[in-house]
Write a structure and sequence with these properties.
The chain is mainly α. Helix content is about 75%, strand content about 0%. It contains 15 helices and no strands.
Length: about 325
């Protein structure tokens, strides 16, 4: 396999996963605000700022009144905004086109269907009344794509490359969600008796990660900052957790690098090192300085991605 094609497969996986997380964040934040227990979390301006913060385009000036339709269009269907859902889907399809002969017809057709659904979605309808329909369809179609990957591809190096992209992106997006909701919890502290540890934003975060029911089953209590962060960062059995994603990346990288030789410069060594560092942390250590943790883990994930590209995809 050409390094360039391997790179296309890796980024195809990343863009598919990214589009799903952005869509789910838009959906859950927008509609959860209707049930929020305090006035600030119910505020449409608060919700729109949270959306922009999560995609990396924050509006820091509190005096600016955000236009709801403009914000939704920018994040959802704006072809000129690099992090929009439509651009992520477009990039996923472009990368799939470049590796067409290595993926199954079923997977390619599902990607094509996904692309045309997003491309042809009426922008006016989306910003006025189509947010729920659009985001639910994006989340469901990405789930179908993951099913096609698992069910129609040989579980060989091609599958491992795609799944490394999926899992690195999943860990990155979960951390970005944690960062945004931590920021929201800080801002809404004290509203309607909310303390930081018991903020409604932790429930919203779990729903954004499709982990609310699992977390309630595991802890058998209402989400708090400690239990939510522990579940989404350190619990290896939660399929959306950072720890689970790192474990998956390590398993797939061993398919590409089965060498038993000790090599401190390899990507496998770096992934194992990062994984081990977080496997034995207490969540209290992380919560004490959550911002430093977020910066460090994002830096680690970026370094893993860059090292992978240098070792396996350089051309």
């Amino acid at each position: 396999m050409l390094s360039r094609v391997a790179n296309n497969l890796f980024w195809m996986g990343r863009y598919i996963e990214r589009s799903e997380h952005i869509a789910r964040y838009l959906n859950v934040n927008y509609f959860s605000s209707l049930d929020a227990p305090n006035q600030l979390s119910q505020s449409r301006q608060f919700v729109l700022r949270s959306m922009l913060f999560m995609v990396g385009d924050p509006e820091d000036d509190e005096s600016v009144q955000l236009d709801e339709e403009k914000v939704l269009y920018t994040i959802g269907l704006d072809p000129d905004f690099p992090f929009s859902i439509i651009n992520n889907v477009k990039y996923a399809r472009e990368n799939a086109n470049s590796a067409r002969d290595l993926i199954s017809t079923e997977l390619y057709e599902a990607i094509n269907k996904f692309y045309h659904f997003v491309l042809n979605y009426d922008a006016d309808s989306f910003v006025k009344s189509g947010l729920h329909d659009f985001t639910v369809n994006v989340a469901e179609m990405t789930a179908i794509l993951r099913g096609k990957m698992r069910g129609t591809l040989l579980h060989d190096d091609i599958y491992s490359i795609i799944m490394m992209g999926v899992n690195i992106e999943r860990a990155t997006q979960i951390i970005r969600m944690i960062n945004a909701k931590h920021h929201d919890a800080e801002k809404s502290r004290g509203s309607y008796g909310d303390t930081f540890g018991n903020s409604f934003e932790w429930t919203t975060l779990l729903k954004c990660a499709e982990s609310y029911d699992m977390m309630r089953r595991f802890y058998k209590k209402t989400p708090t900052s400690i239990s939510t962060l522990e579940f989404l960062i350190l619990n290896p059995n939660c399929p959306r957790s950072v720890m689970n994603s790192l474990n998956q990346v390590y398993d797939h990288i061993k398919v590409l690098d089965p060498s038993k030789n000790y090599n401190k410069t390899s990507t496998a060594f770096l992934v194992g090192r990062v994984r081990s560092e977080y496997a034995y942390k207490y969540i209290q250590e992380i919560e004490e300085d959550i911002q430093s943790f977020i910066e460090n883990i994002l830096e680690n994930l970026s370094e893993i991605g860059q090292k992978m590209e240098k070792e396996f995809f350089k051309y």
